[in-house]
Structure formats: C-alpha cells, structure tokens
Amino acid sequence: MSYSFEDKDLTSEKSLWDVYKLSRRILPSKFQVIFLLLIMLALGLNAFVLVDDEAIILGDVRKWSEFGFNFSITTLGFLIAGFTIFATLSVSALISTPKTIRSVLLI
Predict the structure, then answer these.
(1) Predicted confidence (pLDDT) per residue in 36-80, tens digit
(2) Nearest to 83, CA basis, from 31, 7, 11
(3) DSSP H helical segments within 25-97, as ranges?
(4) Is 47 exposed, middle or buried (0-12, 13-18, 19+ CB in 10 A)?
(5) Cα separation of 90 and 75, whole Å?
(6) Is the pTM for the entire model greater than 0.70?
(7) Which one-letter DSSP state was computed for residue 47?
(8) Any long-range contacts for 82-89 (C-beta under 8 Å, 24+ apart)?
C-alpha cells in the first residue's frame, strides 16, 4: 500500500484537541457495531438468566472493571508519552541553532 502525503500533514495537529476533532470523522464499521451488540447481549444473558448468585456477578463486574480501568490507563499513558515525544521533536526553535540546543541541554 502506497500513501502519498506531504510532510507538513504529519505535524498539522498541534494539540490533543486537534487530534480528537479529526478522530471524530472515523466512524465504526458495521462489524464493530454488530460485535458490540452481540457482546452486550451475551453479557446481559449471563447476568440476568444464566447466573443466579449475585455474589458471582458482583465479583465478575469488579474483575472486568479492573481490567478495563487498567487498560484505559495504560492506553492513556502511551498516548501522552507519544504526544510528549511528538511535541518535543516538533519544536522548530529547539533545533534551529546549536546555541539553543546547548542552552537547553545545560538546563
């Protein structure tokens, strides 16, 4: 697959808000929507029909919420770290002169 784009397109977003606004254009596919509805149906069936003991359901909800929380925090950490690297490398004043680089390194 060959993509053709200009270099300035890679750094056109200067904040996370710009990235978020552009990401809203990406819509989920039919497969993703159907898969999500099937999972919701399976979990609802498990919670309301198959399992009678409320303690088991409560334990499962706590376990899965812990997994979801850990996954979201890990993903957020990678996004922040990646954006920090991007923001650091995209500062043009930092790489313009050796004197600027030397003064930044001394701080």
Answers:
(1) 999 999 988 988 888 888 888 889 889 989 999 999 999 999 989
(2) 11
(3) 30-45, 54-89
(4) middle
(5) 22
(6) no
(7) I
(8) 83/16, 83/19, 86/11
